[in-house]
């Protein structure tokens, strides 16, 4: 059972999402919060597995709430669930430590799937969100010292690391990667860490975006 807290300042959104999530036998909504301050208190008291967090809320917004959660020794997995799809909000949310980013227009099956994948240690972004993140990474990596279409060199990925990267792009957590490739979970974790190090990425999501920019994978096919 995945225990979930909803944080959104619109009651109708909370109620609708609550009803939708509880159609699934493995989801349990244990609290609803109308702002970030309530979400922080509820997560401390109830220790949920998952927090679905809106960005625009009174008292404390989603990004500030996410940053404060990230300072705690233990925190739930967090998916930003919002109507905003502009680049700056997406980047700030992911930099603050969000595990996923969903738009409120997402189909119900995509919402269900994202929660389950994120809960299992994966990271899943909608195509529109992934493309915006990819564009941001490209802008960050380009500097006046080199042509705009040239990226700094990176250490080559091994054949096994490329296999892991493809599965990483599908949102698979280490355990599923290990099972798929018939290797230990510890080995899978080692490969993921090596990929991030070689690409200069700070997290799994950024590693996928940077790999796509270099042509190592195609986000449209992942």
Automatic annotation (TrEMBL):
Say yes or no: keyword 4Fe-4S present.
no
Report the CDD domains cross-referenced here.
LuxR_C_like (cd06170), REC_NarL-like (cd17535)
Q: Which domain of life is it from?
A: Bacteria
Instruction: Cite a single GO MF annotation.
Output: DNA binding
Alphabetized InterPro entries for the sequence:
CheY-like_superfamily, NreC/VraR/RcsB-like_REC, Sig_transdc_resp-reg_C-effctor, Sig_transdc_resp-reg_receiver, Tscrpt_reg_LuxR_C, WalR-like
Where are the bilayer-spanning segments?
none
Q: Which Pfam families match?
A: GerE, Response_reg
Q: At what positions is 4-aspartylphosphate found?
A: 54
Residue intervals of the Response regulatory domain: 3-119
The keyword Repressor is assigned to this record: no
Recite the UniProt keywords alphabetically: DNA-binding, Phosphoprotein
Provide a GO biological process annotation: regulation of DNA-templated transcription
Annotated HTH luxR-type domain ranges read 150-215
What's the protein here called? DNA-binding response regulator
Can you name the source organism? Dictyobacter alpinus
């Amino acid at each position: 059972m995945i225990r979930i807290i909803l944080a959104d300042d619109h009651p109708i959104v909370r109620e609708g999402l609550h009803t939708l999530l509880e159609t699934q036998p493995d989801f349990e909504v244990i609290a609803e919060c109308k702002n970030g301050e309530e979400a922080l208190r509820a997560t401390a008291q109830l220790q949920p597995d998952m927090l679905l967090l809106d960005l625009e809320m009174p008292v404390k917004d989603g990004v500030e709430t996410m940053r404060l959660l990230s300072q705690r020794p233990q925190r739930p997995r967090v998916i930003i669930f919002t109507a905003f799809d502009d680049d700056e909000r997406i980047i700030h949310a992911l930099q603050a430590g969000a595990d996923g980013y969903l738009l409120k227009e997402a189909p119900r099956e995509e919402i269900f799937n994202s929660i389950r994948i994120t809960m299992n240690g994966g990271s899943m972004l909608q195509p529109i969100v992934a493309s915006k993140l990819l564009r941001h990474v490209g802008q960050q990596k380009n500097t006046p010292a080199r042509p705009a279409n040239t990226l700094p060199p990176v250490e080559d990925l091994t054949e096994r690391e490329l296999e892991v990267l493809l599965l990483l792009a599908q949102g698979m957590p280490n355990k599923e990667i290990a099972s798929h490739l018939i290797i230990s979970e510890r080995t899978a974790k080692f490969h993921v860490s090596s990929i991030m190090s070689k690409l200069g990425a700070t997290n799994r999501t950024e590693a996928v975006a940077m790999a796509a920019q270099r042509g190592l994978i195609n986000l449209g096919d992942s």
